[in-house]
Amino acid sequence: MFLAVLSSRIAASLVSSINEMQKPRRAAALENCRKWNQIKEGQTMHSPPDIFAPHFTDDPYRHFDVLREEFPVSYSEQAGGYFISRHSDVRQVLHDKTFTARPLQSRVELVTQGPVLAQIEGREHSAKRKIVVRSFTEPSLSRYHVGVIERNIEGLLGPLLKQESIDVVRDFGRKLSIYVMLDILGLPRSDFKQINEWCAGISKYSFSLDSSLETRAKAISCGRALNNYLTPVVQKRQNHPEGDLISDWCASEAGDKRMATDAIRVLCVNALVAAVEPTDKTLGLLMRHLIENPEQQDAVRSDRRLLAAAVAETLRCTPPVQIIPRQSERDTTFGTGHFVPAGSTIYCLLAAANRDPRVFTHPERFDIFRSDLGKDRSFAGAAEHFAFGSGRHFCAGAAFARAEIEMAANSLFDATINWRYAQGFRYGEDGIYTRGPKSLLLAFDRV
Ligand code: HEM
Questions:
Q1: Given the CA of residue 402, which atom of ligand 1 is nearest to it?
Q2: Under a CB-based contact definition with an 8 Å cutoff, are residues 352 and 67 in contact?
Q3: What is the rounded average pLDDT for all residues in the chain?
Q4: Atom of ligand 1 nearest to the CA of 136
Q5: pLDDT digit string (tens) for 244-285?
Q6: Domain range spanning residue 54?
Q7: Is there an atom of ligand 1 within 6 Å of 387 CB?
Q8: Among the residues of 39-167, which ranges form H helices?
Q9: 71 found inside a domain
Q10: Host H or E run for residue 404
Q11: Inter-residue contact 318 to 354 (CB < 8 Å)
């Protein structure tokens, strides 16, 4: 009895000291909240910030504290699901098999006309994932892909360096990611323009909360065009293999049998869309952080081994994929006591979780030297940040993306100094599902 009273007193004092410790954070969160939602002094926030409001889209980072501290599990009528923002809750959802990737089915499959990796589960997922992971990690990465990335960087950067400034996102990152994927899959480089357009149309609907009929119709027509384009290519490679990835997939066995034409075609769409959308954004975001933190830029310039930490910290601080949707297949009560019924859609807010102060100190600071980043595992499934997801659907192209972004940034470091935004350029980001700059005009001096 005595022990029970003592332990309940200890627990009460622990809770009160945790509350004390959290006061400044809560105060800052509410201050932000008041500022952005016109809440008056003395009032408290009774409803979560509206994710669809323009002031949220303009700068979601200002609102994440409020969401995470005041509304860690919040329902949005417009999105038809619950947004979760704490690191521990996001981890739970991404690792627990009772949260499935079902919500992606309705959006993505409509466009791809077949299941992409991120929406399937169980044996089929494991078998196909094995093939894709093998295609984009070592030894394939060093043996085949590094050379392709190198050649494309050289080809793109040569003419760009003659200009006064470079649009790092539009003219370098995006083109690089598409050309590299065309070369690897074995698709003609001359088809760049239409493949770029189809991928953009598909991504705008598949990686968004936008349900407008226009965006949906455009995505369906882009998906149909890309499918019609890819099907005869895959059929040809099934009969006449060449030394490319599509031919390799035609010969690969998922489980104990070769994949059908349609399954290979969907993997191609999957690789194209998954590889292109976040890579150009990450390069733009990295450049933004290095321009805005010149001492850290100098540190990386003089010791390129720090580049991996700079890319990882970019991904933590400003992940280009900000939301992963899941469906709860059973009633769930989160650690915060919030209840979510079976069948609900759950949106994991990766960017909010990546700035959870329970895991990262001064999470809002871009700091390539932070000790809590877990640098060595930042591009692997054990990463502390969620930019590549976590659990069984962890990004199959993380190692590949790291190589591509580091090689692109290293080439810029080698050829240019004195990085700054071009005159008249105003940096801005766009999107709440995927987020990044549409353009970043880098001015520089040639080495
Ligand atoms: C910086 C670049 C990248 C970022 C931030 C990123 C982010 C992500 C995220 C968050 C997921 C998890 C989706 C989920 O759990 O529902 C994912 C999955 C995936 N990514 Fe990436 N990705 C990047 C680059 C790439 C590249 C270059 C490729 C291909 C070469 C790729 C291929 C994939 C595939 C196939 C999946 C599905 C994996 C599965 O469901 O098992 N990604 N990515």
A1: 1
A2: yes
A3: 90
A4: 30
A5: 999 999 999 998 889 999 999 999 999 999 999 899 999 999
A6: 1-65
A7: yes
A8: 54-58, 61-70, 87-95, 102-104, 110-112, 122-136, 140, 146-160
A9: no
A10: helix 398-415
A11: no
Residues 6+ apart with CB under 8 A from 444: 165, 166, 412, 416, 417, 418, 419, 420
pLDDT at position 283 is: 98
Closest residue by Cα to atom 18, ligand 1, is 395
Ligand 1 center from residue 359 Cα (angstroms): 23
Read off the tokens for 308. 């991996």
Q: Residue 252 and residue 114: Cα distance in Å, rounded?
A: 18
Number of domains in the chain: 2
The two three-digit tokens of residue 341, written as one number = 């019924």
Please identify, among 65, 94, 110, the residue that sits at the C-terminal boundary of a domain.
65
The pLDDT of residue 45? 53
Q: How far is the CA of 444 from the centre of ligand 1 (A)?
A: 32
What is the spatial distance between Cα 226 and Cα 247, in angstroms, rounded to a whole number?
18
Mean pLDDT computed over 58-72: 95
Predicted confidence at residue 19, as pLDDT, reads 41
CA 22 to ligand 1 centroid distance, Å: 34
Instruction: Specify the range with the lowest mean pLDDT, choosing from 19-28, 158-167, 371-380, 435-444.
Output: 19-28
Q: Mark whether 49 and 187 lie in a shared domain.
A: no
